[in-house]
Design goal:
By secondary structure, the chain is of the alpha+beta class. The chain is built from 7 helices and 13 strands. Helix 2 packs antiparallel against helix 7 and helix 5 packs parallel to helix 6. The longest helix is centred in the C-terminal third of the chain and has 42 residues.
Length: 348
Amino acid sequence: MGVKQVLKSIDAFPRAEEHLLQKTQSGAVVSIVGLIIMATLFFHELKYYLTTYTVHQMSVDLKRGETLPININVSFPSLPCDVLSIDAVDMSGKHEVDIDTNIWKLRLNHDGHIIGTEYLSDLVEGGHTHKHDHDKEEDASQKPQSHGFDQDAENKVKNVKQALANGEGCRVFGILNVQRVAGNFHISVHGLNIFVAQQIFEGAIHVNVSHVIHDLSFGPKYPGIHNPLDGTERILRGTSGTFKYYIKVVPTEYRYLSKEVLPTNQFSVTEYFVPMHEFDRMWPAVYFLYDLSPITVTIREERRSFLHFITRLCAVLGGTFALTGMLDRWMFRLLEALTKSKSKTRLR
């Protein structure tokens, strides 16, 4: 037996003579359906191959001496900008009051819209420096004490009361850079002189810290991130109190397919509300208390291998071809049986 005969003997796809092949309408229908199914599965597998997926890994956080950026965008519909301040405290002992670096305030009307064109002047950062509490105490001790208000305080009280009567609110947004240690920042009326605050609100129970958190994140966003506080609305009616958000920050690195690394953070949160009573001495506020996890999460983008794509493609296309072939044979035999039964009936 020659080489050609040996090769022909192992042929797994023998060909029949053209005159021995029988083409039917049922076979054409099955072929069209099979082609549609195979085309659909092909594009599905192609999309599956081109889509990236992520792999999560955990390791000990080894970062030191870096800052933690906090993106803030919060609206207070019931408090004017003149009374709001951001204060920050951390475990290292650093205490900043009325922070204005990279922090801006926008005046809002009672509908939540920016008031006219005045936001242009509101977007200008203040030029004063931050002072610690003990600095303020020293400044206060150097100034002559007075039981009355000076003209500036009286004007401020008048302006704030007018803003409250008009239903004016405030949006606070910006970037707060803090040290990578546990701490908190809070938005409240703590920046006001206690006597001025008492004159404006006539008691802490009348301070409405209703708020809407548009965005709160610890670093840039990566694909698929979910910040649990985004879109949070807490509106108080007829009561007051302090909101506390206990946040666990998890350092995260997102590695793109291009090998670019995006350092950021994700977090979980637990919420707690403390209602205010008439004789409480503390003023209401919105606290964000954060702590850092010692574990870093690395999220790496990956794409499936080409061999994996070819294997799946052969499986689905081959399976579809085999299934349609079986369906064609069954339909042909069924139609043939029906035709024979009709022929016998006519002969009788």
